[in-house]
Records
---
Amino acid sequence: MKIIDKKQLAPEIVRFIVEAPQIAKKAQPGHFIILRYKENGERIPLTIADYNREKGTITLVCQGIGKSTYEINRMEVGDSFLDLLGPLGKAYPIKKLGTVVCVAGGLGVAPLYPKAKALYEAGNRIISLIGAQRKELLIMTEEMAAISAEIHFSTDDGSFGHHGFITEPLRQVLAREKVDEVVAVGPVPMMASAVKVAREFNVPVVVSLNALMVDGTGMCGGCRVTVGGETKFCCVDGPTFDGAAVDFQELLMRQRYYQEQEKEAFHRCKLEEAGQE
Amino acid sequence: MRQQMPKQDPAVRRTNFDEVALGFTAEQALAEAKRCLNCKKPLCVQGCPVEIDIPQFITLLVAGKPDQALAKIKEKNSLPAICGRVCPQENQCEKQCVLGRKGEPVAIGALERYCADWGRANQAVEPSCEPECAVKGKVAVVGSGPAGLTAAADLALMGYRATLFESLHAPGGVLRYGIPEFRLPKAIVDYEVGNLKKLGVEIKTNVLVGKTITIEELFATGYEAVFIGTGAGLPYFLDIPGENLNGVYSANEFLTRVNLMKAYLFPEYDTPVRIGKRVAVVGAGNVAMDAARTALRLGAETVSIVYRRSRAEMPARREEIENAEEEGVVFRLLTNPVRLEGDERGNLTTMICQKMALGEPDASGRRRPVPIPGSEEELPVDTVIVAVGQGPNPILLQATTGLALNKRGYIEVDPETMMTSIPGVFAGGDIVTGAATVIAAMGAGKKAARAIDRYLAAKKEAGK
Ligand SMILES: Cc1cc2nc3c(=O)[nH]c(=O)nc-3n(C[C@H](O)[C@H](O)[C@H](O)COP(=O)(O)OP(=O)(O)OC[C@H]3O[C@@H](n4cnc5c(N)ncnc54)[C@H](O)[C@@H]3O)c2cc1C
Ligand SMILES: Cc1cc2nc3c(=O)[nH]c(=O)nc-3n(C[C@H](O)[C@H](O)[C@H](O)COP(=O)(O)OP(=O)(O)OC[C@H]3O[C@@H](n4cnc5c(N)ncnc54)[C@H](O)[C@@H]3O)c2cc1C
Ligand code: SF4
Ligand code: SF4
Ligand code: FES
Ligand SMILES: [Mg+2]
């Protein structure tokens, strides 16, 4: 659980390499962990972005968007997470499909990377489409380029690559050639539009859902999502699902349930930090 | 006359999370203990699933020897401070007490609690084990609820090195995440877990067996037997429209946020919980009462129990139903939710209910509730907590090949040996019986520990 390496990938996006031999041994693409970094902390799910079984380490990429992730990003090499549980969730089954388009939005590259890498190693041709708000928030581009036959970028502000959403390059690729699967990971609205585009072309699309979680072991049901008209527990039945069947509207609303409390907590955390300086 | 345990005043206690029932004073304990007739054939003992020698411990209490009384209890029950508080005594030991036939039974649970609390307050010597204790073998115990805690303690006392594996970050199972602080202070759970450590039991939290490590791998790393006590932690929902609206919690989620994650101390603790003005809890078991009373303490203005049968069928402990009523929980009986509705932001606003009447008895012998046509009514709500039961969590069961399950999905065991279909793998508690009681789970843990001892002894004998 000790942090042995820390690297700032972009503003407020940090990559940690953590000692966790038992988890590293079992980790598969699609798996995540749940951690607590301090005694009165909450349980935070993060995807296993990479793993090294020999060294017994896992890689986590954390984007500071609220109190807990912000504080996690302030941990240093040598610090330890208090609790680390995993690997959780269902592994994403890796098959040789042919051509796979990997679409990532923002931090979504981190959870997407292990899947893309495994697909590549299984002999698939990978086309990567990576979008972010602006150039400096594009992360893990070299890792993705190394496994991709083709890679395209987009930024919302046009500071790099295509100016606009990543779904536009996706549409171009799907219009151009036969694709066997689309894998889309990122913010819910981005996944929802990627699914829409993939469906227009009748291409199967899988997504990785980030429902609110507590235990991550199927015990609370807080992470429930509607997939194909049925209620599923994201932590045990997912987090990877058939995108065409997901009720994204419901997921988006459920993610926002604690927004006011979250804002208050983050605000206090910033105040405390300012007070200390 | 049966002594009444002092309690916090209802108006005060509904605003705090401190323990409600305060325990007997020494005078009360003595007076109550003296009521016991010290029966030659004590029926009460038959009502206790672990057969505590009730007249004996009460006699010792009357003789002014609470330490020995506690030791007597501990011969059969390693967690008396917990059982004295949460056992459904009116259906168990006290139901059988002869005094109950004409008047009121001896308050056995309260006396048991008194002894245990006395022991904690006076630092009674707890059984302990030196690290160099004879080590008869290594046993893995999966799940740290009452079944696992008891199995591990008994195995340690018999000379085994027991390791508890728990998926959450804190041990205790339902005692930790389910039963609230005001009914079972977590300091008591911590104390009992501390005793377990003194016995040499190793506790490994954050290990989800089936994911982090499999049962096969436990054997491969040197454990000679495995006990599965993973409980019935999978929450059931109602399967009605609108159940995924914001504001609909399973009781497990609601109670876990509050108890395990301490959301009632937000923002000092980071986990949030939202409670509206109007809360409805569906169900009438212990879980439902706990959820309802927790909701009150979090500041809800009205909290109703919505239950489709009548008062007579409510499965909760009588004391908790009374406590809930005193605190102001409203009981909407013969009422069944059929639909939930929300606003444009996906937040719950209304529960549509149907009135029920009791018809013919069903398979369980209880009269089946049948809907009254045209009786739909709207209940404005901003939080609904679903407490209609739990099932077996599939993670470990699916990851373990060759583990036979029964029709309901629970683990099948030989009732004598508690062994599953896999040699050397034993199971007990809610994962075998379905949601039951703390004491039943403890009884199963005890029985399994003895069976494991016999199994390993026989195996060693055969190997010689
Ligand atoms: C399976 C899964 C994998 C994830 N992988 C990553 C990852 O690799 N890297 C990364 O940076 N983030 C990941 N996330 C998201 C991450 O868990 C949230 O950003 C984090 O919990 C926010 O906590 P906070 O206190 O910093 O922010 P808050 O201000 O408390 O919340 C901000 C937003 O984050 C979401 N969130 C809050 N609490 C939780 C929770 N307990 N569980 C899930 N989401 C929550 C909500 O949508 C909320 O509105 C993943 C989430 C899931 C479910
Ligand atoms: C809110 C509530 C109130 C209750 N009130 C009462 C009461 O007043 N009186 C009473 O007698 N009974 C009560 N009960 C019932 C009683 O608590 C249970 O019957 C009892 O706890 C069952 O014990 P157990 O050891 O079988 O399982 P549990 O207590 O459920 O413990 C199982 C443990 O195993 C862990 N686990 C699960 N899967 C894995 C895995 N794969 N790997 C590692 N760990 C795992 C879980 O995290 C959990 O900690 C109540 C239950 C609830 C939920
Ligand atoms: S353990 Fe429970 S049933 Fe047995 S004597 Fe104590 S309170 Fe009664
Ligand atoms: S049955 Fe009642 S009176 Fe008789 S020994 Fe038991 S507790 Fe005492
Ligand atoms: S997070 Fe609790 S069931 Fe999925
Ligand atoms: Mg947070």
---
Amino acid sequence: TPGIVSAAASKETFNLKMTNAYPPGSPFYVQGPGSPTDFCQKVGEMSGGRLNISHFAAGELIPALEGFNAVAQGTVEMNAANAYFWAGKIPAAQFFTTVPFGLNTQGMMSWLYHGGGLKLWHELYEPYGLIAFPMGNTGVQMTGWFRDPIETVSDLNGLKMRIPGLAGKVYSELGVSVRLLPGGEIFPALERGVIDAAEFVGPYQDRRLGLHKAAKNYYTTGWHEPTNVTELLINKKVWDSLPKDLQMIIQMAAQASVLESLAWSEANNADALRDLVENEGVIAKPLPAPIVSRLKEVTSDTLSTMANSDEQIKKVYDSFMAFKDKHSSWASLSEKPLLNL
Amino acid sequence: MSGNEWLVIGMIAGFLGLMILGVPVAISLAVSGFVAGYLGFGTNLFYLMPARLFGVVTNYTLLAIPLFVFMGVMLEKSKVAENMLETIGKAMGGLNGGMGLAIILVGVLMGASTGIVGATVVTVGLLTLPALMRRGYSPSVSCGTICASGTLGQIIPPSLVLILLSDIVGESVGTLFAAAFIPGLILASIYIVYLLLLGVFKKELVPAIPAEERALISRKKLIKDLFAHVMPPLLLVFAVLGSIIGGVAAPTEAASMGALGALLIAVVAKGFNPAMLKETLHGTLVISAMVFFILLCAQPFSLAFRGLGGDQMVHAMFDLLPGGEFGAILFLMVVLFVLGFFLEWIEISYIALPMFLPVFMNYGTDMVWLAIMVAMNLQMSFLTPPFGWALFFLKGVAPKGITTRDIYVGVLPFVALQLLALVVLFQFPALVTWLPEAIGW
Amino acid sequence: MGGLARFCVLALVLMVATNVILRYLFSIGPVSLQELEWHLVSPIALLGLSYSMKHRADVRIDFLYERFSVRLRALVDLLSSLLTVAIGGIIAWLSIFYVIQSYNLNEGSPDPGGLAFRYLLKAFIPLGFGLLLLQGVADCFRALIQLRNPDNAMPVAAQLTAEEPV
Ligand code: NA
Ligand code: NA
């Protein structure tokens, strides 16, 4: 009878490997509350040891950005990263991490869980034999560190900035010279003025890199990354082979990680920003409004050009924008006034 | 011990065996890794191999290897390096060990522009070893000096070890860079004192240029030579360093300023012609590929080490950790040193440190100080036979007649000097912590 | 192939230097040119493997080797070249699938303005190790000839390359 079969299956033990795009020891990205290693431990305990996931940080099994190919191939069963790292393979994937001037964290979570976002994500990955879930969120990121204050749009012209991805493209439209640099070289380059500005993550992670020792102007609202979703990538065959209860444990542990990592980020960023301003002489403020609105115009053009060039992007873009429209009207009357109280 | 643990030991033994027999180091690494891995976990994990290889050849910081090697080969082919050392040797007068000092200084200056040991050792080796041999320096002292000087870049900022450690210990890169500055200079000074002492007590090992030959050259000519032969390469090093300090180039790309400068110097020195350029490109390609060959073939070895649970074996040593902060530090240093006999430093830092460091956080140990001690120790692992990267790299560019034994024997005193430096840092933590606090990094 | 790799060395030096100078003087720095910097390392490292083997620039530990008889040395050389063939073959074979996967994904740079066709870059892995395999075969024959005539000096080709300045 089916009952006996499922009882037998549920005794089976699964040993899986998870790789990570971030180096060993990184808080949030590798360890700490709501991190991928925390997720693996939670899954182990929730399943009573039936699902063991061994975690490998970047470089331990494979280099940082090789997780997608390894999981698709099935040599590794899971990977922790951000979907925008796969933009070179699936351009539409970047919408599942963050969109410049897009949804904030609350809106992003709503779109993913209740606005059809997660379903689109699964559809997009299906042909590659993959499935993905959100497994964390840094919350809003920061515009970045600038050696000199930025007062007008023309100050951006000729500025040398470390900024990867879509935001880099937007900045370059305004005359910024985009420099790609690995994490370890950001500090020396900014400190010596090889670059004039650098974007990294948020107060807690940026302070850890020491960026405040290299530049004092910290522009805050992360127009380019209003939220940032950590992706749990799973090989679809492996996922399908797991019993229902273990699948549910994975989903619930991932959701718990989203909440816990976000709460952790908010708390630590608040502490770190206060410390930076009060003890390190950092000047923290948003970019002047005219610059932000210019960036917004260019972003909007860039996004719609992207959407018109690729059918998959178009589909995700339309869903995302429709949801944002709806969510923004709601938020403008709920959260926005609340923050001004 | 489990079957896989025996395989780990067999893998290390197999590697050492093949290597000692005279099989190329790279091939020995790859073969032992593949065989032990295949016996232990079959083929599965090896499907990850291409991703690791791709990671090596697309690693941004490794750009510095071909760039620095190009600079070195170009200076060698245009005889700039040879003239420089000769002139320095003459300028040092009767001081025994004088040319050795020049090599340490070149190591410090190059170390301040890169952290890639392969690039520095190969470049310094190419530039200086033939001249030292001709001048009657003992092969082993020469080799030891070059290896030690070439690894200084690991502790002198900027440095890959420090960047990686900053992630693991959670201190900013800038803090660690500042903290490593004085220890790096101390280490270089210890080397210099050692060479000077050799010059006094064992002068036949590090002879000065004979007085009669020096007498042939007038003071005026010497000063002219200093300008003609020493200034250009010195300017080159300052071009590299200056472009970093002056905010022109990030550390890795700065190497290109050296390469471009070497090209210009060759043109100005009239040593430049198409045939010479082709030879330089040939030399750069052969030497860079030799370094990459080892880095690539280390991948199957590291992958098998992990796949077989070698990291778990290291973690099991953790149970032996004695109580007390002092005992724990001593234990950590010994473990790192021993692992350095057969593992690459990145693998060591990934496997051992995240496990050990929380213990020290509990003791309230100063993590900056500990990180610099660890960096110094890892640097030592580049020098310790039989498996020290610096030794292999130097062997690759050494002229005929320099044996592995010369290199192994030559580095031993420098390993001892490094230990001495470690003890000094242990006794006087302020040497590490003072500068970052003073400049507020 | 050696010529292509040598050209890449020169291109790398000029490319990185040009990027630095353009950025410093004119604040120009296209993402594609920056990516090209590290794209040039793959051909240098991977095509260079067989090239450096051919020019006998591999690193070996020789304190026993130099004491061996000519015959024993030839045996070690034979063993080395057979193992080289095996390593070249295994890695080339493993990485063919890796390249095919990248081709099927039509993989390119994740950065806008970056370079497309990343599978071409990845194809240097099987190509480089495939050439290493061929070099191993050639070295095998060289070792066998040496083994058959242990009294003769090394074959002319080997002697020439050994004396070539490195
Ligand atoms: Na350095
Ligand atoms: Na070692």
